[in-house]
Amino acid sequence: MMSPTFSLSCMSNWLCPLHFPDFANTSTFRLHCSQERSLAPPSVTSVGQDESIGRIAIRNDHVLRNNSPVLQQNGLPPLVSALKASAEQNVASFHFPGHNRGRAAPASLTRLIGTRPFVHDLPELPELDNLFCPQGPILEAQTEAAKLFGSSQTWFLVGGTTCGIQAAIMATCSPGEFLILPRNSHISAISALVLSGAVPKYIVPDYENDWDIAGGVTPLQVLKAIQELEMEGKKAAAVFITSPTYHALQQGADLTVQSTHKVLCSLTQSSMLHMSGNIVDKEKISRCLQTLQSTSPSYLLLASLDAARAQLSESPDVVFNQAMALAYEAKCMLKRIPGISVLENSSFPTFPAIDPLRLTVGFWKVGLSGYEADEILYGDYGVVCELVGNKSITYAFNLGTCRDHVQRLLSGIKHLAATYVTIQQPEERVLTVHAPFDDKITSLIPRDAFFASKRKVTIKESIGEISGELICPYPPGIPVLIPGEVITKKAVDYLLHVRSKGGDITGASDPLLSSIVVCNV
């Protein structure tokens, strides 16, 4: 039986039960786990450190199918239409939620957003369908999404991409089975290892020293990981890839988890899970999602997914053109500013393309870390970024990005560079301390470490012990220490360095990092 592949990324992630695609813009990498294995090498075209897990992938506007949106008689998408009709009913309400269709909504919040969100914040009424057994407008909305994205089945998620990744891994990996995934995978992939009991087989991604950024994973790295397991008489159950491209399903991913709220326009915390083919048991996916998601899903979130799908289906071939044009213009302008670096394809020669809607800017040549530059740009110019790193900042362009905001970004960076390039010794102030992904030793699988008895030790005493915590700088949410890994001096030094530069450290019971929880093993 073939193993599934799934992917995850800012837009989506993909997973393959070991028949998997790459995370490229144009081609697919598949590994077939059967009596005979064949590998069709692709041209990989993406780089990604975005949050993701599994073999699930993100999609680009030019691969979306041009289907006419299904609209109700009132011109609205099916689930949006059903929610509108239900909210407009003249009924005596004796059901939850407690604000009773906005009649008892807290005044402090209604002064901010009005009462309409509360009026439409309805429970699972018969006319609104049931997320876990859809037969009406939810089923129709999911079916239309599947048509648009080219999947055999689509599930709406109200627990974010996190629950989609967890469900994908739980549905494809049983306790003790191996999951191949990048070591710089998002925290949600690690939590899925705890939930599923799967054993990680990590791939160490390529690392760009100048930028202090981990790149993507190549097909050959995945193939090597599979072969290493085979030499030990083991077999991978699935492969998990994070990718910012929009071709996941076209490349052969079996499952794709798509962060619809990030690049598209649904509400925060709403995502989609797409399935292609029949390798994965769809009933198992449904059972896992029912286990992980709330039994009281927000219909505002669900309707926003339907609305985002309808919005995209109106012009799938051109909808991102303006955003990509603005991003390209901004990149060209930034490259002219002395002391400012812009991440380009040449930084990762094995990956021919970089997500055009991500603009990553380096500040080390003006003597500033990414954290320091972000503090200045946010405080003095009101520029809010997507991701801050040790040496760079990433800005996300989307359908709502406007030229005025781009001009503010460019003006802020220009003034920052002009100010600091004259008073700093270029590059000397920014120490190069790389994230320690290449020297990890796993002593316990994440699930065993999670449930093991633990104790707290000083950070100096923790070196050589087995980590009992999942500790990572956030954003981007890439763990430096995973439960079950041996704590190294390199990992400790990196965490302390990030904290000294103003980065946030999550997952540690002691946010000051004076102590760390370790396993009693």
From TrEMBL:
Sequence ranges assigned to domain Orn/Lys/Arg decarboxylase C-terminal in this UniProt record: 455-500
A Pfam family it matches: OKR_DC_1_C
Record keyword Lyase present: yes
Highest taxon above the source species: Eukaryota
Co-factor requirement: pyridoxal 5'-phosphate
GO MF assignments: carboxy-lyase activity
Lyase listed as a keyword: yes
Orn/Lys/Arg decarboxylases family 1 pyridoxal-P attachment site domain: residues covered: 77-249, 255-338
Entries under InterPro entries matching the protein: Orn/Lys/Arg_deCO2ase_major_dom, Orn_Lys_Arg_decarboxylase-I, Prn/Lys/Arg_de-COase_C, Prn/Lys/Arg_de-COase_C_sf, PyrdxlP-dep_Trfase, PyrdxlP-dep_Trfase_major
SUPFAM superfamilies referenced in this protein's UniProt entry, alphabetically: Ornithine decarboxylase C-terminal domain, PLP-dependent transferases
Keyword annotations of the record: Decarboxylase, Lyase, Pyridoxal phosphate
Family affiliation: Belongs to the Orn/Lys/Arg decarboxylase class-I family.
UniProt name for this protein: Orn/Lys/Arg decarboxylases family 1 pyridoxal-P attachment site domain-containing protein
